[in-house]
Amino acid sequence: MLVVLALAGCDAQPAAGGAEDAGTALERTALASGMVADPSRVVATGTYASGEDKVCLVPAGETDRYRVGASVDLGEQQQCVGRGTARGRDKLDVEMGQGCQFVASIDGDRIVFPAVLPAGCDTMCEGRATLAALEAERLSDSVAEAARVAGADGKPLCTG
User: Can you give the residue ranges of every domain in the chain?
Assistant: First the structure.
């Protein structure tokens, strides 16, 4: 009986503007409580990692501009190291030189590189390693820590 009453309520049409107002109120409450990140306050800076794969982002002067570094280390002669700049917020326009330009995504505390990258990105890699589909979780939002992250070549990834 209770199920029938619950299902009957599914067909009920909200009063004009009621659904939008309720949704707006719910979103506002979720943002205020911290349950949902405010996209206007998302900060990409920090250190991201997954196993031996690393990404760092440190501010580069203007708002939403960063120095970026990425490193993949699969062992001896199987590595990638790329350094460059990025701009954006939840979508980062990344430029690592040598024709290596792509859009990476920031999804909460995770950064994701596209599965297919320009051929110029291959010049930053040895062996079968690739920067394609690199996915890493944020370990820290500390700029100082991100500036000290070293790549597979032993050098800082996000140097200026």
Answer: 14-42, 44-148
Residue type, 72: V
- Residue pair 125/79 in contact (Cβ under 8 Å)? The answer is yes
Q: Which two tokens stand for residue 114?
A: 């596209």
Decide: 111 and 56 in contact? Cβ < 8 Å.
no
Chain CA centroid to CA 24, Å: 26
- The pTM (predicted TM-score) of the whole model is 0.74
Percent of the chain predicted with pLDDT > 90: 65
Alpha helices in the chain (DSSP H): 2-8, 18-33, 143-148
Q: Which two tokens stand for residue 106?
A: 């920031």
pLDDT at position 15 over 70 = no
Residue type, 144: A
Q: Classify residue 27 as left (phi > 0), alpha (psi -120 to 50) or beta.
A: alpha
SS3 content of the chain, % helix, strand, coil (to 5): 25, 35, 40
CB-based contact 59:121 (threshold 8 Å) = no
